[in-house]
Amino acid sequence: MIRAGNITYLAGKQKILHDVSCFVEQGKVTVLLGSNGAGKSTLLKILAGALSPASGTLAWKGKPYSAISVAAFARERAVLTQHYGVSMPFRCSEIVLMGRYPHFTGNPSKQDLQIVEEAMRELQVDVFADRYFQSLSGGEQQRVQMARVLAQLWPAHENDTEKFMLLDEPVSSMDCLYQQKSLQTARRMAARGFAVLVVLHDLNLAAQYADEVILLRKGRLIASGDCKTVLQASLIREAYDYEVEVVYHDDFHFPLIVPAAHKKQTFLLQTKTA
Amino acid sequence: MQTRWIRISLLLLLLVVMVLAAGVGAMKIPVPEVLRILAYKAGIPVHPLPDVAMMNVFWELRLPRVLRAVMIGGGLAIAGASLQGLFRNPLADPMLIGISSGASLAAVLVIVLYSFLPSFLLNWLPRYYLLNVVTFAGACACSLLVFRLSTTGNRTAVASLLLAGLAITALCNAFIGLITYTANDEELRNITFWSLGSLGGASWRITGALAPFIILPVIVLPVLSKSLNAYSLGETEAHYLGVNVRRLKIGILGLSTLAVGAAVASAGMIGFVGLVVPHILRSVTGTDHRQLLFNSAVLGAVLLTLADTVGRTIIAPAELPIGIVTALIGTPVFITLLLKQRKKLGGLETA
After folding, report:
1. What is the pLDDT of residue A225?
2. Is A265 an interface residue toward B (CB < 8 Å)?
3. pLDDT, position A13
4. More confident: B23 or B160
5. pLDDT tens readout for residues B33-70
6. A247 - beta bridge partners?
7. In this complex, is the C-beta atom of A90 within 8 Å of any C-beta atom belonging to chain B?
8. Domain map (residue ranges) of chain A
9. Distance in angstroms (rounded) separating the CA atoms of residues B17 and B121
10. Tally of domains in chain B
């Protein structure tokens, strides 16, 4: 489990995060929500160990981040960032193999190569193995990068599942089918014991896949906890300044979140007053 | 594995080119004779004994010169490949980004100020090492300056990289011009020949002085190749993959500058090797630096040895400066590459 206590982060003089405390549990998918500029990516970078907060505590499995080396952390934590371009012409299989770099020196073992294949099959990018990364579309590139992240954490044996996967808007360029497939993959990894943190914009995807939700507004934590307790109309209004209706349907386990502006009566009401 | 065969055939090619190059010249030494001399020097009894004149020419003139070409070519090419990886730009080259001009400004300073230097310094540091050390300092200062100028936050902008390189080159050239203006005839001749590049006057002493500056980068840079691959994903992404980014940058810059500084100090300005060789290899073996770096060193050695052989035989008994030969061959190749990859590079800029 990742514990973050009283995190404050400053960019110059501007406070990006105020006193945020949260945790990401193993075996669960935790979704980080908030409007643009709420500090989601900054919090993700801090939890990933790329940024150091001005104050606050960070621990992974009870160990403070400062006591974990860059190389050791790379064997247990992987991050899919929003920037997934590659500056040199690499083939997709080479990119996914980079996920195994923390695990070998010199040449990859047979197991490393096998993991690369499995990770690529998992995201159905094995067909692109010999293609140049730059020749792929945005969504395909995102899937290849996610396969790299998976390869970095892929359990080497049954009990090798104490891992932390962070995905920053992992499905932003994907079509609806692969959005579902990629998040299902994240779910499966959580089910195996990974701690999974996902930044999402789509409230409905969040409702479908989150076990836990962390909700930020202007750098402050406004709610965190079980998906159904956080995804309420009042909290969403507070976070996004946006009216929604949270609808439950008997055939689904999760709520549907729809913009209140589209509701028929409201629409009639508005036209009446106009 | 295919990649292993490419490496082995490149090494074999280098051996063949070295033996042939050592045999070509005013005194022709046939291949069997070269092999017999090598065997004799290695202590293997040969019968009959090799021709003494041939042995002297080979051992005292040709071999040190060939080894020097091999080292300089290898050093320039591996530095070019590494810097392209670090700058995330296949067009980065020690010449284009100002490292070489920094080195040459330093070298010109040494040539002109040599007679003014206090004698205790000269006793302590022989001239070849002095030139090496000072040009290394010049190259280092320029590479740091260009890297700083072109880096904002943690992103190195491609356009400002080349512009900063151009600006630093122009500034160095202005100072070189200023110094040249005040130089006397002999210094002027030295500067001119130095700036055209030459592998002439090779001896074991010069070759030996060069060796540590090239061998170290050629051994250590390939160790960094995995990190360099990860670095092409982005700086933060490399950090997430366990790369110590700061150490990587300093390592690549330091070692490349060591090789380029030493090469420029030893043989003057030799362009295009660092640019063209990695390009050729990328189209064959791809970008993976685990193959690219070492292969670049070998192919760079092959090409510079060939260029030197052409340079010293084509207008014999005079010599064509090697910088002219590499520029004459390199420029058309470079332009062809540019035309072929124009679309691809356009895509890279936006990536």
Report:
1. 92
2. no
3. 87
4. B23
5. 888 898 888 888 887 888 888 888 888 889 999 999 99
6. A256
7. yes
8. 1-76+162-231, 85-158
9. 40
10. 1
ipTM: 0.91
Provide the sign of the torsion angle of the four alpha carbons B86, A135, B288, B8, taken in this order. Answer: negative
- pLDDT for res B349: 44
A89 — contact with chain B (CB < 8 Å)?
Answer: yes
Q: Which of B233, B235, B245, B343 to mutate to test the interface with A (most CBs of A within 10 A)?
A: B233
Q: Which domain holds residue B127?
A: 2-350
CATH superfamily of A1-76+162-231: P-loop containing nucleotide triphosphate hydrolases (3.40.50.300)
pLDDT-based confidence at residue B194 (cuts at 50, 70, 90): confident
- Is A99 an 8 Å CB contact of chain B? yes
CA–CA separation, B85 and B92 (whole Å) = 9
Of B240, B282, B288, the CB nearest to A50: B240
Does the beta-carbon distance from A134 to B351 stay under 8 Å?
yes
Residue linked to tokens 């001009």:
B101
Whether B279 contacts chain A with CB within 8 A: no
Tell if the CB–CB gap between B242 and A101 is shorter than 8 Å.
yes
pLDDT at B16: 95
> Any chain B CB within 8 A of the CB of A129?
no
Model pLDDT for residues A150-190, shown as the tens digit of each residue? 999 999 888 888 999 999 999 988 999 999 999 999 999 99
Write the CATH number for B340.
Answer: 1.10.3470.10
Are the CB atoms for B273 and B61 separated by under 8 Å?
A: no
Question: For residue A213, which phi and psi values (nearest 5 degrees)?
Answer: -130, 135
The single residue listed with the structure tokens 């004779």 is: B33
Of A83, A98, A134, the CB nearest to B229: A98
Share of chain A above pLDDT 70, in %: 96
Output the pLDDT for position A262: 81
Distances (CA, A) of A108 to A86, A94, A101, A104, B5: 21, 11, 8, 6, 18
Give residue B125's pLDDT band: very low, low, confident or very high (50, 70, 90): low
The residue among B334 and A7 whose pLDDT is bigger is: A7
Which residues neighbour A148 within 8 Å (Cβ) at sequence distance 6 or greater?
A: A95, A96, A98, A99, A119
| Tokens linked to B193 | 């020949």
Instruction: State how far the alpha carbon of B334 is from the alpha carbons of A196, A266, B86, B252, B304, in Å.
Output: 48, 66, 20, 24, 16
